[in-house]
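Request: When convenient, would you put together a sequence paired with its structure tokens?
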Amino acid sequence: MSKGQPTEKDTAKEKTCPSCETRFLCLHNNDCWCMDYSLTAEKLAYLRNNYDDCLCPACLSQHGVPKTDPARVHSSN
């Protein structure tokens, strides 16, 4: 076994979405798929107040905007 930086397998954790109960993989670091979403401060506060853990990709996509779509990130909707 090599010592050094943890691998994706070392940091990844299977979780259950507190919203829909779907199982999904969380990398639990800045390389996780969830980092591809932008959330307003209001949405982030809502999620923190209403859920005790990470949401699955499908549920998070209902609250956040993909960072690859900059036109929607600043929309007033």
Q: What stands out?
A: Residues 73-77 have pLDDT under 50 and may be disordered. The chain is about 30% helix and 15% strand.
